[in-house]
Amino acid sequence: MTNEPTHGNHIETKFDSNYRKVMVAARRARQIQSGASPLIRSQSNKACRLAQEEIQAGKIAYVHTGPPPEKPTNEDPGIPILAL
Prior knowledge:
By secondary structure, this protein is mainly alpha-helical. Helix content is 31%, strand content 7%. One of its GO terms (molecular function) is DNA-directed RNA polymerase activity.
């Protein structure tokens, strides 16, 4: 397994939304709670705060997989459903 991004994916260090930043911090906090070593020294022992400080320090990156799939519109109903 390599750290190279797969086709269509790329590694991001800047966040395009606060939601994504919170989700990455939450995932990193879970990793720290599960025993992962913190990447920075901090006065706090709380996993959530450590994760936020790691993001602020630029130590955390994430893989951006592209835009989410779009919902079908009325013009493109997708799979036809027949009522019996």
